[in-house]
């Protein structure tokens, strides 16, 4: 009985401390410190919980309009396979209005998540100094540094590269699924090699998958589904200036579902970016054109009574991407056609947009549409029910379309710099 009364008393004390009146009293000292408020808009992998716990000199807010400093983080892959991250600082209101800054850092391709977030926090912390000084909130700052030799080791980049900028990657995945009436295995192998410099870009990929499944139907029949696929791709690109590039694209593909025993393509490519490539992390407007020769060898005779053929084609691609404080958007248009018959073509458009409509209100829209008139690989005859249900055979279609819409609204306290990891793993 005494233990029960003590337990109830403890609960009462806890509820009293978490009451609205007490909670309001706890928030007041935080507001009275008049610390700068920061909103982090992260398009790359960011550990928000870690950053809030490491950087406590500012208040973290969940609403961009309530911030004094807006930070936009974007990321691009480096030639070695690491990350090139840019942090753009934008001051908002008062003495910070119009004050902008930009800091970048790079991570190695084998960097761990902890190394990435530590470097992210370091650069973010340094970027805040200018704003703290400008707003006269830097009186408590103290400049400290580690061992001089250690700092020099971090700052120095290797002067020689024994690999001459070549990066290789090998990945092997396997999966086994089993039920009383279904069994499936899948093995995937992928080999990548690349060499990327300011002037040249070389990329090679060889990938294949063995996908086998067996189904036992209620009538006792056993249906086997095979979706094996392999591909090889190579790209050789050369920079022709801050906005022009040229190259050669080559590829090979084998896929039974698409009735392809072998498809080879070799195509010169030219690309123009309306903005300098150096601004790619914020905006891109590219026009890309290729003229290619294709060799087809089919598993089954096609609807055009062909088992093999050679064709010329051309492809045009226009893409626009932007990342801004209001959100982000992309729009891509593609057109491809066979030269011997321009009526055999495919026209497509796809895009997505993320917009912050108001405080806490966000809208996400993704859509794509393709007009299909170039299905020359379709096999003769009709697909069986098994092939349709198991998606083992490509079918004729005039178009492909997809739309996805999402809306979110967040309300309540926008000021929360507290980190509390309790029960994070509880589902």
Please describe what this structure looks like.
It is a single chain. The chain is 17% helix and 48% strand. The strands form two sheets. Strands 6, 7, 8, 9, 10, 11, 12, 13, 14, 15, 16, 17 and 18 form a 13-stranded antiparallel sheet that branches. The protein has a five-stranded mixed sheet with strand order 2-1-3-4-5, with helices on one face. It is elongated and about 80 Å long. The chain starts with a helix and ends in an 18-residue tail after the last strand. The chain contains six helices and 18 strands. It is an alpha+beta fold and 427 residues long. Strand 7 and strand 8 form a beta hairpin. It has helices at 2-17, 20-32, 48-54, 113-134, 148-155, 385-389; strands spanning 37-42, 59-60, 69-77, 83-91, 100-107, 166-178, 182-196, 200-216, 222-226, 229-239, 244-255, 260-273, 283-298, 308-324, 327-338, 341-358, 361-372, 399-409. It folds into two domains: 30-155, Rossmann fold (3-Layer(aba) Sandwich); 228-409, Porin (Beta Barrel). The model is unreliable at 13-33 (pLDDT under 50).
What structural class results from the helix and strand content? alpha+beta
Main beta sheet strand tally, sense and closure: 13 strands, antiparallel
Return the average pLDDT rounded to an integer.
Answer: 82
Bulk shape: elongated
Helix content: 10-25%
| Domains, number | 2
CATH architectural group of the largest domain: Beta Barrel
Highest CATH level, the class of the largest domain: Mainly Beta
* Number of helical segments with 4 or more residues: 6
């Amino acid at each position: 009985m005494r233990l029960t009364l003590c337990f109830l008393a403890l609960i009462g004390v806890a509820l009293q401390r978490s009451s609205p009146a007490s909670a309001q009293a706890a928030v007041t000292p935080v507001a009275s410190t008049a610390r700068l408020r920061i909103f982090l808009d992260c398009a790359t992998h960011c550990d928000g919980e870690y950053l809030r716990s490491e950087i406590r000199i500012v208040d973290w807010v969940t609403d961009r309009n309530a911030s004094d400093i807006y930070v936009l983080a974007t990321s691009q892959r480096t030639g070695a396979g690491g990350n090139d991250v840019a942090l753009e600082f934008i001051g908002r209101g008062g003495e910070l209005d119009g004050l902008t800054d930009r800091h970048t850092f790079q991570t190695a391709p084998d960097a761990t998540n902890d190394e990435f977030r530590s470097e992210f926090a370091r650069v973010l912390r340094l970027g805040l100094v200018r704003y703290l000084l400008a707003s006269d909130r830097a009186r408590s700052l103290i400049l400290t540094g580690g061992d001089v030799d250690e700092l020099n080791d971090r700052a120095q980049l290797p002067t020689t590269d024994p690999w001459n900028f070549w990066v290789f990657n090998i990945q092997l995945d396997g999966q086994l699924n089993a039920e009383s009436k279904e069994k499936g295995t899948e093995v995937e192998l992928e080999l990548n090699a690349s060499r990327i410099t300011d002037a040249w870009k070389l990329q090679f990929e060889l990938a294949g998958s063995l996908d086998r499944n067996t189904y036992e139907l209620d009538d006792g029949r056993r249906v086997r589904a095979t979706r094996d696929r392999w591909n090889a791709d190579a790209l050789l690109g050369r920079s022709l200036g801050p906005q022009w590039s040229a190259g050669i694209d080559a590829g090979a593909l084998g896929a039974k579902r698409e009735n392809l025993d072998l498809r080879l393509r070799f195509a010169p490519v030219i690309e123009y970016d309306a903005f300098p490539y150096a601004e790619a992390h914020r905006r891109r407007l590219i026009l890309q054109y290729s003229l290619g020769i294709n060799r087809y060898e089919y598993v089954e005779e096609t609807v055009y009574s062909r088992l093999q053929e050679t064709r010329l084609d051309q492809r045009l691609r226009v893409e626009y991407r932007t990342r801004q404080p209001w959100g982000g958007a992309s729009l891509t248009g593609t057109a491809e056609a066979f030269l011997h018959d321009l009526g055999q073509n495919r026209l497509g458009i796809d895009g997505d947009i993320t917009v912050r409509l108001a405080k806490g209100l966000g809208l996400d829209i993704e859509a794509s549409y393709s007009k299909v008139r170039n299905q020359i690989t379709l096999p003769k005859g009709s697909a069986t029910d098994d092939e349709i249900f198991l998606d083992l055979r490509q079918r004729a279609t005039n178009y492909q379309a997809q739309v996805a819409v999402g809306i979110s609204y967040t309300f309540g306290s926008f000021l929360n710099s507290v980190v509390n990891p309790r029960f994070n793993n509880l589902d």
